[in-house]
Amino acid sequence: MTESSMSMSSFFRNRFVRVIMASSIFLQIGIWVRNFAILLYVMDKTNNNPIAVSLISVAEFAPIFIFSFIGGTFADRWRPKRTMVWCDLLSAISVFAVLLTIIFGTWQGVFFVTFVSSILSQFSQPSAMKLFKIHVPEEYMQTGMAIFQTVMSIFMIIGPALGTIVFQKFGINIAIAIMGIAFLLSASVLTLLPADQIIERENITTNFFEELKEGFNYVWQEKALTILGSVFAAAGLAVGIIQPLGVFIIVERLGLPKENLQLLFMVNGAAMFIGGGLIMTIAKKVKPQKLLAIGLVVNAISMVGLGLSSSWVMVLLFEFFNGFFMPCIQIGINTLILQLTRSEFVGRVNGVLNPMFMGFMVITMSLTGWLKGQFSLTALYIAAGLLFLIGAILTSLIFNTSVHNKIDSAQ
């Protein structure tokens, strides 16, 4: 799409936007059924073992640290539409393969479902970002990110209930089959994307490792991206601490059934939906740097609040508070990456920055089972809050970065 501007109505008439939104809906169905069905299944099988629960998250996030570099680099080399279609198709095949292993008695195969889809997402996600930069005008990037964040927020509301109901009513086998069908439907929809642009590469002699090195050099030379990487690291350490602990706030501290976790996610999702909708109305008025900092400060406050809360009502209030401002972080980060990065480096910048978040998250996530035995839930949540605060302080260093000047100079 070559127009420099367009109305919101024409934004939704954009073929790329419609297809990606439809694909996102199918993917979100598969992801949420996967997340809750596997969580409840593993907790049933292991009698709520915290190490087994944390291993689910490790299976999801550890491959990101390893494959994000590779996926981001190949996203800049391969045709993005073809990459996304094949990734969803291979995810579906892996899901049905695991279903067969579970039917024949190997329940631990559920970890493999998460592991494989996590690997493939490292190739498809930067490809989607690359297409977003190509097909969406620059002045609508932040608004577009807010719209897609709203779609994800809707599934934060209905996803936990969907996953829980599917598992409780039909069992793990049907749940995994639904995952596979959802990935297949997403792959089918993605075939309707506009054809990939064929880029002339005759004069390009760099190999994979040279292009990977170029990606690291590009991030290192751009001060704003380097600082953003540090923010990713601090946030990753924080999220890794608290990611597996939500269910233990419910089960151990409050003495409630583990199924209440779905209500916690639903409240968070409803807040994200409202917050994302608000950001859509102010997206052009607030710099993405400031959106990111606001989200990190509120996360810090929410983590401390959750760590100190001893009532279900207070937990829900802090979860709502956290969710309301969460879109500030996600929209701010994605917009900054797109606005600060030349299109030919989008995949590699994603491939460099995502491991900064995921790698540090996996480090603390892998230790969460042990940390929970050494420290109280309160201490762990306060530690996560301090790390989010550090991220906000680092973000303040790029408040005066001129995004538009960088874009102009890049072009």
UniProtKB/TrEMBL annotation:
Superkingdom of the source species: Bacteria
Domain Major facilitator superfamily (MFS) profile: 16-403
Compartment annotation: Cell membrane
Pfam families from the UniProt entry: MFS_1
InterPro entries assigned: Bacilysin_exporter_BacE_put, MFS, MFS_dom, MFS_trans_sf
Membrane topology: Multi-pass membrane protein
Keywords annotated in UniProt: Cell membrane, Membrane, Transmembrane, Transmembrane helix, Transport
Gene3D superfamilies: MFS general substrate transporter like domains
PROSITE patterns the record matches: MFS
Spans through the membrane: 20-43, 49-71, 144-166, 172-193, 225-251, 263-282, 291-314, 352-371, 377-399
Broad class of where this protein is predominantly found: membrane
Name of the protein in question: MFS transporter
